[in-house]
Amino acid sequence: MELSDREYLERLFEAFYEVGALPGGGVTRLGYTELEDEMHRRFADLAGELGCRIEIDLAGNSYAFSEEAEEYVLIGSHLDSVIQGGRYDGVAGVMAGLLLLKRAKEAGLKLPLKAAAFRCEESSNFGCCTMGSGLVTGQLKEGPDRLSQLMGKDGVHLGDVFARRGLSLTPPRITGVKQYLELHIEQGKVLEETGARVGVVSTIAGPRRWKLQLKGLAEHSGATPMSMRQDALCAAAEIVLAVERIGQREAVRCESVATVGVIQNTPNALNVIPGAAELGIDLRGSDMDSLDRMEQDTLRTAREICARRRIDLLESKLSEMDPVRMDEGIQRGLAAAAERLSISCRNMPSGAGHDAMAFAPLFPTGMVFIPCKKGISHNPLESATLESILDGADVLWEYLRGMD
Q1: Are residues 45 and 191 in the same domain?
Q2: What is the mean pLDDT of residues 67-73?
Q3: Which of 291, 320, 349 is a domain's end point?
């Protein structure tokens, strides 16, 4: 007995559900780890049930397809997560790709369609985002030498991880992509608050990520006068608040954002003045001038603070991607498909990064957003409905059927 589309999505969700599950809810499935491997194995098994062929490229990305074609539409997303993340980020888009392959098979349509599951879209493990898609599109600005030295949460360098797995930091470029499409949860609350059932993405903000290492002097907290201290954590605290002010200023001007998402304190002892601190800074925006201002102001302010406090500062740029626009023809086509289906739709930017960023400079690219509950994402409370995934998949399917 064939499953309905909703039942099939339930089957897919259940297949992925337990991988990396955390006791308090949510999941952790870091890129290029055994848990991400297991997600890709399950993707391959589920595609195999549809009679699809599976390909794995030299970056470790997985592809499922039924029909061989020199040119094809690629529908993809990722299967990794942030630390203590949710179950829908990335996975919803992979589920939609498999669902569309199922529909094509049941309808007897020979669509040149591939579903993709990309590796390491999140920066949580190696500090570099959209790695799997970025490698096969050549869109990562970091070269292989620098990439190989990135260290994962387990202390192992990316180069060693790739060597052990037989992967390559210089894989062949992907070819044959006629268009790239991606379904994703919004990771914000615009759709939910406006009542729109889907969003068509216009622009994806570009991230710039920095690591700042501050070195002061660890001394006894009781015996060292306040005027003689070189407290790395106090300097870091000033920088954190400065980054917030810079982000608030640019939010008003250009809707940019700035976040300090990582802070490490050493030796992290109650009776010791912090001798070292490390900050991870994430700057994002759709306007290049705004990104430049935030980056320049953040670094200048950090240098001033550290100089005043007699703290040594080491700056390391982790990664950057330029803002990208989605193809205008695809935007119109997706909006028209939603209108034909009487699915309410709005055109909107994306503040979060996605694999679509890697494809947009090379191939016509489009994205469909679906609502997530209260806009919460990168959090165990992240939630979306299967009905919303169906809405997004319906729009993609209607668009595909109307392509030349």
Answers
A1: yes
A2: 90
A3: 320
Q: What is the C-alpha R_g of the chain?
A: 22
Peptide bond before residue 267 is cis, with ω within 30 degrees of 0? yes
CATH number of the domain at 77, please: 3.40.630.10
What is the C-alpha separation between 313 and 326, in angstroms, rounded? Answer: 38
3-state secondary structure of 404: coil
245 and 348 inside one domain? no
pLDDT digits (tens, 9 = 90+) for 107-156: 888 889 999 999 999 989 998 889 999 999 999 988 999 999 999 999 99
Would you state the pLDDT for residue 402? 84
Residue 171 banded pLDDT, cuts 50, 70, 90: very high
8 Å CB contact between 80 and 39: yes
Q: What is the domain-level CATH number for residue 274?
A: 3.30.70.360
Specify whether 311 is located in the same domain as 268. yes
265 and 124 assigned to the same domain: no
Give the model's confidence band at 404: pLDDT under 50 very low, under 70 low, under 90 confident, else very high: low
The whole-angstrom separation of Cα 282 and Cα 261 is 7
Tens of pLDDT, residue by residue over 257-268, are 999 999 999 999
> Within the chain, how many helices (H) and strands (E) appear?
12, 13
Q: How many structural domains is the chain composed of?
A: 2
Q: Based on the domain organization, do 290 and 330 belong to the same domain?
A: no
Contact 178/73 with Cβ under 8 angstroms? yes
pTM: 0.85
Q: Are strands 113-118 and 177-185 parallel, antiparallel or unpaired?
A: unpaired
Please report, for residues 142, 228, 229, 236, 264, the alpha-carbon distance to residue 221 in angstroms, rounded to integers and kept in the order given.
41, 11, 9, 18, 19
User: Where in the sequence is the domain holding 13, given as residue range(s)?
Assistant: 5-205+323-401
